[in-house]
Amino acid sequence: MSSLRTLELNIVSDLVDFIRGTGYVLDFSDASFMEFFATELDVDIEDHRYSDVGTSKGKRLRRFLQLVDDTTALKTLRALWEHRVDFLMRTGREDPVPNAEVRYLTLVARLGGGPAAATPQQSPKPAFDHARFDVLKAELLALSSMDPHARGYAFEKFLRSLFAAYRLQPRTPFENRGEQIDGSFVLGGDTYLLEAKWHQQPTGQADLLIFEGKLGSKAPWARGLFVSYNGFTDGGLEAFGRGKRTICMNGNDIYDALDRRIPFDEVIDRKARRAVETGWPFIPVRELF
């Protein structure tokens, strides 16, 4: 059984039950609740063990967290938190729970979440200034009227500004004995190398393979983000194949994220996760959100 106490289980209830006392869990229907547990945890939440004190989604979740070990409880809370953040972003709702992130991090730390879980004394991530979305979108649109040669450098500079706005610790272009790297950034403890291109034609297989080759000569945990403003050829992506360490992004992805006010770090996270799930390097933002 988990070490979660009644008080801590009540905190979980507060975080997932936005309509107090109803037994609902976020926006889950009965079907999607069952699918969530099957997909994220390989668990049949319909099992009678989890409904012996009540059949509502809230009561089954509470009972499940009581019966499983701390490792499974921790994995469950992290998956629920990810869904919660996505739900609030999609609906544009203000978080109805005061100090929600701090309370969540406290639970994670108690279950042995480690340094990544932070401590309850840490301040939540500062809210992004939404006016900055409009400034960045205007800067992106202004690049279209520039001379092609100057535009390539300006595009790299724009991307560094975008990464900096989300505290992704961008690094300027650098060289490693015969190879040029357009930059790097850090997200969630992972280091990404950057390739940025603004060509008249979509990017094909050759450029993708060259960049993947650069990644292959780095540490095994290195990841790559290839940003091609005019996108990628279907044949190039197909020939490039699946299971690579590169995720891809085009100009429409950047514009859609800024226009819809989707945090850019969330865009990269979602793309990386879908790449892990499917092996496919490019899925547009409008399909992910």
Automatic annotation (TrEMBL):
Every Restriction endonuclease type IV Mrr domain range: 152-255
Domain of life per record: Bacteria
Molecular function, one GO term: DNA binding
SUPFAM superfamilies for this protein: Restriction endonuclease-like
Protein name: Restriction endonuclease type IV Mrr domain-containing protein
Protein source organism: Brevundimonas alba
GO BP terms in the entry: DNA restriction-modification system
Pfam families associated with the record: Mrr_cat
InterPro entries with a match to the protein in the record: Restrct_endonuc-II-like, Restrct_endonuc_IV_Mrr
